[in-house]
Design brief:
238 residues, 3% strand
């Protein structure tokens, strides 16, 4: 399937388009943005004009581009799940299926990185292509995914690879993301930059524990069942 297939999927159900219109492409929302932007331009002589331009033009356009990128990824992922297009269509005929797609579109409109949109498209595609739609399960995972930053997702995937001493997929993953996964020294005499980076690394790990995605085992973190579930949905198949 190509981009045309994605557009075909989006038009499967009028209710789905209605939801998209109401929640992501609503012209009334643009009118409100214009009103706020005009007010900002009037009361903020320094940055008001710039803010007005961003709010009325750049933000809506960026969000539309992000949604299109998400839908292309969704189309590609569904195409890779052979024989599941009928199942995908059936789920889109349900309120639950539409809600999951709508949540994916909303999150995509706010996603900045290409990796985030790609993982989001994979999550929604897999969820809507399974024989049984596990709505509550996927809604929970989508809610968690929305709250995680990209570095936290990278850490979660790292822990899911069961890091141990020696070579392995975890080591290859660490090589791909050294700026995030490389340990930072917190010893006395460390620079302020190192101290800040170490604090951020610690906060990423604490977030994974707070959401129940990782747990402390001995002197290291280990991925939980919930964490592994999320990784299985967002990671590409080997």
């Amino acid at each position: 399937m190509a981009v045309s297939s994605a557009l075909t999927l989006v038009t499967i159900d009028n209710r789905m388009m209605s939801n998209l219109d109401q929640n992501t492409l609503d012209s009334n929302r643009r009118d409100k943005l214009v009103s706020i932007a005009n007010s900002a331009a009037g009361v903020l002589p320094g940055v008001g004009t710039l803010i007005s331009e961003v709010m009325t033009a750049i933000i809506p356009d960026l969000r539309l581009e992000r949604m299109v990128a998400f839908l292309k990824q969704l189309d590609s992922e569904v195409a890779n799940i052979h024989g599941r297009l009928d199942t995908f269509e059936q789920h889109l005929q349900t309120e639950e299926g539409l809600d999951l797609l709508e949540e994916g579109c909303v999150q995509a409109s706010r996603a900045v990185s290409a990796d985030r949109k790609e993982r989001l498209g994979r999550l929604v595609a897999k969820a809507l292509s399974t024989e049984e739609l596990r709505y509550e399960e996927i809604r929970k995972l989508l809610n968690i995914y929305r709250e995680l930053t990209d570095p936290e997702i990278i850490w979660l995937i790292y822990y899911s690879l069961n890091p141990v001493f020696g070579d392995g997929p975890h080591k290859e993953w660490a090589k791909l993301h050294p700026e995030i996964l490389e340990p930072v020294s917190k010893t006395m005499g460390a620079s302020q930059e190192q101290i800040v980076k170490a604090a951020l690394q610690e906060s990423y790990k604490q977030t994974l524990q707070r959401f129940g995605l990782a747990e402390q085992k001995g002197n290291r973190l280990s991925v939980t069942t919930l964490g592994r579930m999320l990784v299985q949905y967002i990671q590409a198949e080997d």
